[in-house]
Amino acid sequence: GAGVSQSPRYKVAKRGQDVALRCDPISGHVSLFWYQQALGQGPEFLTYFQNEAQLDKSGLPSDRFFAERPEGSVSTLKIQRTQQEDSAVYLCASSVQGAISYGYTFGSGTRLTVV
Amino acid sequence: QKEVEQNSGPLSVPEGAIASLNCTYSDRGSQSFFWYRQYSGKSPELIMSIYSNGDKEDGRFTAQLNKASQYVSLLIRDSQPSDSATYLCAVNRYNFNKFYFGSGTKLNVKP
């Protein structure tokens, strides 16, 4: 596809449930980013991949959050034992290596609601 | 102190007026500056980037950067109701692979 694709678009999880969010980046994009956007806030950085290597995971809020990109393309963000404070929109973005300084394009996001 | 600060608004302007949106940042090492527009329920959309002090114009949009004052602004000329959205300011440090976003300013353009 032409853009970054995320699925599911919406996810409702019961507290304590594990969830997996998928990001399909633009073909050929080496860099992939995950952000979390809480209601009324700007996006906050979670983690960054260059190919399959997770080079920065400083933004992951707890050890319940785990991200992977095993073949350097599709990425999955997994949240274990979801809590209400995990309710947010999870945004994925990709870019050509070295192009981050030019900005990047977000996918449509996954809206996670924990009940 | 937050990395990027924005007034949450809402900022209300009449159709056809100039909307002025402002942003300050805390890290003098910041090198790249961006404005994103976010419609309700949608993901942020990149509208402008600026890297050097001064003004950069793109259609009805002008970004202004003052590194000495650590200040970025976005001017929207001839505002239209379709410009009503939340505007997010983002900054990036050289060689850092993350953006720091402000909380956004909500703009309402009244017909």
Overview of the structural elements:
The complex is a heterodimer of chains A (115) and B (111). Chain A has 115 residues and is mostly beta strands. Chain A has no helices and eleven strands. In chain A, strand 7 and strand 8 form a beta hairpin. Chain B is mainly beta and 111 residues long. Helices cover 0% and strands 57% of the residues of chain B. In chain B, the strands form two sheets. In chain B, strands 2, 4, 5, 9, 10 and 11 form a six-stranded mixed beta sheet that branches. In chain B, strands 1-3-8-7-6 form a five-stranded antiparallel beta sheet, with no helix packed on it. The N and C termini of chain B lie far apart (37 Å). The chains are: A mainly beta (115), B mainly beta (111). The interface between A and B is medium-sized, with 25 and 24 residues.
Which bin fits the share of residues in helices of chain B?
Answer: under 10%
Globular, elongated, flat, extended or rod-shaped: what is the shape of chain B? globular
Which protein chains are joined by the largest interface, and how many residues does each one contribute? A-B, 25 and 24 residues
Low-confidence spans of chain A: none
Measured by DSSP, the beta-strand proportion of chain B falls in over 45%
Head-to-tail CA distance between termini of chain A: 33 Å
Distance, first to last CA of chain B: 37 Å
Structural class category of chain A: mainly beta
Order of helices and strands of chain B: EEEEEEEEEEE
Order of helices and strands of chain A: EEEEEEEEEEE
Strand tally of chain B? 11
Please state the average pLDDT score of chain A: 93
Secondary-structure blueprint:
The complex is a heterodimer of chains A (115) and B (111).
Chain A: E1 5-7, E2 10-13, E3 19-24, E4 31-37, E5 44-50, E6 53-56, E7 65-68, E8 75-79, E9 88-95, E10 105-106, E11 110-114
Parallel strand pairs in A: 2-11
Antiparallel strand pairs in A: 1-3, 3-8, 4-5, 4-9, 5-6, 7-8, 9-10, 9-11
Chain B: E1 4-5, E2 11-14, E3 19-25, E4 30-38, E5 45-50, E6 54-58, E7 61-66, E8 71-76, E9 85-93, E10 99-101, E11 105-110
